[in-house]
Amino acid sequence: MTKSKMLEASEVPLYLLPKTIANQLRTFGDAVYRISVKRTHWHHYNVSVRTKSIRRELRPAPVAVLRAGLTNSRGIRVRGDA
Known about the structure:
Layout: E1 4-13, H1 17-28, E2 31-41, E3 44-52
Antiparallel strand pairs: 1-3, 2-3
């Protein structure tokens, strides 16, 4: 079982909720498990984001792209984007 990670932010104004959640997700960069938002007073909220790491078989794999010597289907050399 993968361990979940949690970030909390307290007393966040209403207009900053989307930015706060985006920053917290960018910090971990994993799959989102749960986002909790609780109103404290006036227009302030406590935000809690829980994430779990992505399973190894679902992680994106690094891919190498070769650009030298590009040819089309007829075997004619094509100019690359370099």
